Amino acid sequence: MDWSDFYADQAGRAVRPTFAAALVRWRDARGPATGQAIDLGCGDGVESRALVAAGWRVLAIDADARVVERVTDGVPDADRARLTVRRASFEELASFDGEALPATDLVYAGFSLPFCSGDVFEMLWARIRQCLLPGGLFAGQLFGPHDDFAAWPDVNTHDRADVERLLHGLTVLQLDEEDRDGRSFAGPKHWHVFHIIASA
Ligand SMILES: C[S@@+](CC[C@H](N)C(=O)[O-])C[C@H]1O[C@@H](n2cnc3c(N)ncnc32)[C@H](O)[C@@H]1O
After folding, report:
1. What is the Cα–Cα distance from 114 to 140, expressed in whole angstroms?
2. In a domain, 8, yes or no
3. What is the span of the domain harbouring residue 132?
4. Tell me, what CATH number does 62's domain have?
5. Average pLDDT, the chain
């Protein structure tokens, strides 16, 4: 899918609230320490750049053809060595023969995992769980079955029981369910979203 309209609609946006809340959780637990982060489905890279600016090492991943230029744009040379941008699909990561995701302190997947093919979602989720270091955080969103985007091809949804199963064994720090009419870059939309922060 071409996400150009989405990126254009979101130009100049701030970091997303669930991301900001995850960093607060991290600082509450670890103070000023930084570590390795993965931004899965990083899109325009706002969160990746915020992490790099805060001192993190970041692996930003997205299937979009222009992801490297999009994410690296504006990153100071001095910080560039801590940012790796990889163009890859979730489906490639799930089926990669080897370590698809390095050991990490933070996996952030902002409004991206629902666009992973349902056939490989469980494998990708297993890889996300495996790469989290002890105390590492997962933050991101999953879509519920009432979400209008559920009708799009290759969009996966999870009901609350599914989400709780996926999070079993993690410490759930935030699980907010949103089920409301609103808007998206594509026009009026019903949102059904789980905003998640969990710790390994
Ligand atoms: C709704 S955007 C979210 C982007 C960003 N995280 C944000 O919060 O603005 C979804 C992103 O996921 C990426 N994406 C969608 N399907 C993907 C897939 N199968 N593999 C990898 N990336 C994918 C898109 O290219 C897009 O950048």
Report:
1. 10
2. no
3. 14-199
4. 3.40.50.150
5. 97
pLDDT band at 126 (very low <50, low <70, confident <90, very high): very high
Q: Is 195 left (phi over 0), alpha (psi -120 to 50) or beta?
A: beta
Q: What is the pLDDT of residue 193?
A: 98
pTM recorded for the entire structure = 0.98
pLDDT band at 98 (very low <50, low <70, confident <90, very high): confident
For residue 4, being part of any structural domain is answered with: no
Residue 176 lies in a domain: yes
- Measured distance CA(198)–CA(66) in Å, rounded: 30
Q: How far is CA 31 from CA 4, 23, 25, 140, 168, in A?
A: 37, 10, 9, 21, 26
Residues touching ligand 1 (Cβ under 6 Å) are: 3, 6, 10, 16, 41-44, 62-64, 89-91, 110-112, 115-116
Section 20-43 average pLDDT? 97
Atom of ligand 1 nearest to the CA of 41: 12
Residue indicated by tokens 């808007």: 183
Q: Please report whether residue 154 resides in a domain.
A: yes
